Amino acid sequence: MNRLIALIRREFWENKGAFRTTPLVIGGLCITFLLMSIFTTAHFDNELYTFKEAVRLLASQTAEFRADHGHEVILGSSVFFTGVLAFVVFFYLLGALYDDRKDRSILFWKSLPASDTLTIASKLLSAMVLAPLIFWAIFILTQILMAGIASLMVLSVGENPWTLFLSVINPLKPWGILLVSYLAASIWFLPMYSWLLLVSSFAPRIPLLFAVLPPVVFAILQVWIAFLKTFTFNASLFGLIGEWVANSPAIFSVGVNDGEAMLTLGVPMTGVFDHAPTVANILDRLFSTQMLAGLIVSAVFLAGALWMRHRATDS
User: Fold this and answer.
1) Domain limits at 9?
2) Against a cut of 0.90, is the pTM above it?
3) How far apart are CA 118 and CA 8, in angstroms?
4) Total number of domains constituting the chain
5) Which residues of the chain have pLDDT under 50?
6) Burial class (CB in 10 A: 0-12, 13-18, 19+), 271
7) What is the rounded CA–CA span in Å between residue 18 and residue 13?
8) What angle do CA 32, 143, 77 make, to 5 degrees?
């Protein structure tokens, strides 16, 4: 266990720009955009009349409405973090086993008292647990700072931020749902993570090409052969991957329910799962036959990555 923790710490220090700096930059941008919007409003409306009316309108609403609205705002503001996290994890895994072969440091790492299994496990856990936890923690810090700025704005127009939203909104609930969502999405996307590690373990160069091109070619062949047989475009690998992403337990889309916009888990393209952002719906995905099939596929890919890692040399 100590060796595994040491390897995970190594992954953090070697990729702290992606794991730590990136979410800090996102948080800084969110705060900067908030301040810019405040200064812009003050420039065009010296007495902040519009903002005062908006605050008074919000204060006239019920506490339940303000709590629900605040809940949605917190979850909605996480979408940017979630999207960037996906890119960070994708490119991290793509280079996880490729970089030390590229810079010929693989023999050094193999000489250390850590097995290839632990090495792969540390990289997988860094992508599945470490990166989401750091993004989540920095998101919370950003939310606290933005709430402080919003409170000062409300005070500046003579209203009480505590009675308006601070005492009404319980941020622990949306923060908790977001954390569960991140960790569940890591499990849900395990087949794709395993595929990226497999590609990273053998690609001689340009791992992005090896990761994307085979599935694309295979899916195009599927569509073409199916079209020749039936003259219709049936489900292919494109559709399988698209449906898998659409059913993700991550909160990254907005759907429409009874004419009202609402945050959703994944993209509600199909009715296989309930897309409302609740812990029950997140767990429903993790204990499904689709997830069982995904774990089997992941095991095959990870076994392939481990086998290629055993065979890897500095050439």
Assistant:
1) 2-311
2) no
3) 10
4) 1
5) 232-233, 259, 314-315
6) exposed
7) 10
8) 80
